Amino acid sequence: MEDVPSGAPQHCPGTSSDQAGKSSACQGCPNQAICASGMTKAPDPAVEEIRQKMSTVKHKILVLSGKGGVGKSTFSAHLAHGLASDGSTEVALLDVDICGPSIPKIMGLEGEQVHQSGSGWSPVYVEDNLAVMSIGFLLSSPDDAVIWRGPKKNGMIKQFLRDVDWGDIDYLIVDTPPGTSDEHLSVVQYLSSTHIDGAIIITTPQEVSLQDVRKEISFCRKVKLPVIGVVENMSGFVCPKCKNKSQIFPPTTGGAEKMCQDFNIPLLGKVPLDPRIGKSCDEGKSFLTEVLDSPATAAYKSIIQRIQEYCSSHQPQD
Amino acid sequence: FSTEKGNLAQVRHVVLVLSGKGGVGKSTLTTELALALRQAGKKVGILDVDLCGPSIPRMLSVGRQEVHQCDAGWVPVYTDAHKSLALMSIGFLLENPDDAVIWRGPKKTALIGQFVSDVAWGELDYLLVDTPPGTSDEHLAVVESLRKHRVDGAILVTTPQAVSTGDVRREIAFCKKTGLRVLGIVENMSGFVCPHCSECTNIFSKGGGEELAKLTDSPFLGCVPLDPQLSSSLEEGRDFLQAFPDSATFGAINQIAHAVMTSIAERG
Ligand SMILES: Nc1ncnc2c1ncn2[C@@H]1O[C@H](COP(=O)(O)OP(=O)(O)OP(=O)(O)O)[C@@H](O)[C@H]1O
Ligand SMILES: Nc1ncnc2c1ncn2[C@@H]1O[C@H](COP(=O)(O)OP(=O)(O)O)[C@@H](O)[C@H]1O
Ligand SMILES: [Mg+2]
Ligand SMILES: [Mg+2]
């Protein structure tokens, strides 16, 4: 059954069945009250509104990882910068990391506020063709913590997808928090009647990270989200003094390469550790234009090109 | 259960390990602190409430274990025959290690409630709670289910760069709102010493943790260097503290463990 959540009690009738919340199997299930309320049966009207809203957005890419701190936001930001370096490409970057929004800082937009426009919220612009939206723009101080449980986060994500006035867009890039929980389910469900090109999965080379990333790939398979490919980040460090390479996060189980073979998905490239990336992020500048001679810059550029090629060769027919 | 505190009745101290940011080393620090406390002769438990990304079983190389039931509830998994280090993690409840736990908040809250009330820890000096990044369901669930028991406080982990300290600032606001004492801030991954030429590179910048401690008037517990021997040990589930007792990293971890013990003892 489609609507039986993973880990549901045995004999779960499914969240949209008439028996939802009422059958004997529902006794003791934490979601019983939600199911019994009937909330899970009615399709959310927002899905249709979002479909209409997204009809002016050509490509949608999610940036995911099961593991935290592997560079999702860094990659999302540089993918956006890279795509927008062609002035005729309209790019939008949406940050759905509600509890840990990093995009405002990385894009150099800290302290910016969102404005209400006639047709919704208007995003914050880095350049004419690069628009950004994040919960960070709705907070009044950098100490503000967003201590929200799932449903409130989901409501915010719905608003981001339905009420932001993006206009005509070639690429919408969605940066996510780590894990496979409310935020991820919500983005995928709210976008379910639109075409999502696919997900870029970010990992670092060590098994501690890969073991979580495999879960993310299982998630993609479960919700039928295509995986465009995997990026291995923080892949080796070359000492600036002696030029010797160190594996700070050692690929003890074969790194992203082996995982990609096992799952039969493409490895888009490897980005080395470069202290100047962290520095550019802290300063809110694009590493791609700040540092031209780094192997990391070349790696980013080649990965971005492969993503563009994927998107243009997988256009939906209509 | 017989008493109000139930399975936590004989647990002397509870410490949460938190960070707003992902991948900063919460699980690493939880693991190493547990090992350091054990070396200091303490009985230690780890409760892993990172439901979507449990790392502790691998870091302590207790891979796939069955969790047994007893009258008082779940028996934790012990890492050694002396039962000096006990562990509970969702990793033990999954059929296949690649299975994704695709749960929304209420279900996570329910399992964490069970973890807190139904694990038969027995007698422990310290129970360390490893958490996922953020300030959401899991964090509220642990704090709320532990209300009845006294929580000694939280250790906040950050890496030095601003992208990370920014998120940890928000975690401190979470501690304030929920009445959790901040035992202190640890700066992890500060400075990498090249094993070939001994040149130190600050891959993730430097000093952010200490600055954050000053800014928020929190104790600073110390820096742990970015050390490939530490990441390799964790990959293989080896006890780093036993393998590298002469390293700077060993000294740093030990010092943090003692600072935590002192800080808790002073409060009584
Ligand atoms: N290749 C790299 N070399 C050096 N530093 C990097 C590299 N990639 C990312 N970083 C730095 O690592 C830190 C973590 O990156 P980032 O914030 O993008 O991770 P994330 O996956 O979005 O984390 P979270 O799970 O908390 O959202 C940042 O400070 C970033 O600048
Ligand atoms: N001081 C350090 N030196 C080297 N590697 C580290 C250090 N601290 C953490 N790591 C590595 O960084 C990765 C992320 O750490 P982890 O503890 O899983 O983070 P979190 O629990 O915050 O997501 C792990 O592979 C770990 O081995
Ligand atoms: Mg991020
Ligand atoms: Mg962890």
UniProtKB/TrEMBL annotation, chain A:
One of its GO terms (cellular component) is nucleus. Pfam families: ParA. GO terms for biological process: iron-sulfur cluster assembly. [4Fe-4S] cluster 1 binds at C12, C26, C29, C35. GO terms for molecular function: 4 iron, 4 sulfur cluster binding; ATP binding; ATP-dependent FeS chaperone activity; iron-sulfur cluster binding; metal ion binding. Keywords: 4Fe-4S, ATP-binding, Cytoplasm, Iron, Iron-sulfur, Metal-binding, Nucleotide-binding. Residues 1-23 are annotated as: Disordered. Residues 13-23 have a biased composition (Polar residues). Its cofactor is [4Fe-4S] cluster. [4Fe-4S] cluster 2 binds at C239, C242. It is found in: Cytoplasm; Nucleus. Binds 4 [4Fe-4S] clusters per heterotetramer. Contains two stable clusters in the N-termini of NUBP1 and two labile, bridging clusters between subunits of the NUBP1-NUBP2 heterotetramer. InterPro entries: Mrp-like_CS (IPR000808), Mrp/NBP35_ATP-bd (IPR019591), NUBP1/Nbp35 (IPR028601), P-loop_NTPase (IPR027417), YlxH/NBP35 (IPR033756). It comes from the Eukaryota. Component of the cytosolic iron-sulfur (Fe/S) protein assembly (CIA) machinery. Required for maturation of extramitochondrial Fe-S proteins. The NUBP1-NUBP2 heterotetramer forms a Fe-S scaffold complex, mediating the de novo assembly of an Fe-S cluster and its transfer to target apoproteins. Implicated in the regulation of centrosome duplication. Negatively regulates cilium formation and structure. Belongs to the Mrp/NBP35 ATP-binding proteins family. NUBP1/NBP35 subfamily. Heterotetramer of 2 NUBP1 and 2 NUBP2 chains. This is NUBP iron-sulfur cluster assembly factor 1, cytosolic. It comes from Lepisosteus oculatus. The lineage of its organism: Eukaryota, Metazoa, Chordata, Craniata, Vertebrata. The gene is NUBP1.
UniProtKB/TrEMBL annotation, chain B:
Keywords: 4Fe-4S, ATP-binding, Cytoplasm, Iron, Iron-sulfur, Metal-binding, Nucleotide-binding. It holds the Pfam family ParA. Transmembrane segments: none annotated. The keyword Zinc does not apply. Binds 4 [4Fe-4S] clusters per heterotetramer. Contains two stable clusters in the N-termini of NUBP1 and two labile, bridging clusters between subunits of the NUBP1-NUBP2 heterotetramer. Its main location: cytoplasm. GO terms for molecular function: 4 iron, 4 sulfur cluster binding; ATP binding; ATP-dependent FeS chaperone activity; iron-sulfur cluster binding; metal ion binding. [4Fe-4S] cluster binds at C194, C197. ATP binds at G20, K21, G22, G23, V24, G25, K26, S27. One of its GO terms (cellular component) is centriole. GO terms for biological process: iron-sulfur cluster assembly. Its cofactor is [4Fe-4S] cluster. It is found in: Cytoplasm, Cytoskeleton, Cilium axoneme; Cytoplasm, Cytoskeleton, Microtubule organizing center, Centrosome, Centriole. InterPro entries: Mrp-like_CS, Mrp/NBP35_ATP-bd, NUBP2/Cfd1_eukaryotes, P-loop_NTPase, YlxH/NBP35. Component of the cytosolic iron-sulfur (Fe/S) protein assembly (CIA) machinery. Required for maturation of extramitochondrial Fe-S proteins. The NUBP1-NUBP2 heterotetramer forms a Fe-S scaffold complex, mediating the de novo assembly of an Fe-S cluster and its transfer to target apoproteins. Negatively regulates cilium formation and structure. Belongs to the Mrp/NBP35 ATP-binding proteins family. NUBP2/CFD1 subfamily. Heterotetramer of 2 NUBP1 and 2 NUBP2 chains. Interacts with KIFC1. Interacts with NUBP1. This is NUBP iron-sulfur cluster assembly factor 2, cytosolic. It comes from Lepisosteus oculatus. The lineage of its organism: Eukaryota, Metazoa, Chordata, Craniata, Vertebrata. The gene is NUBP2.
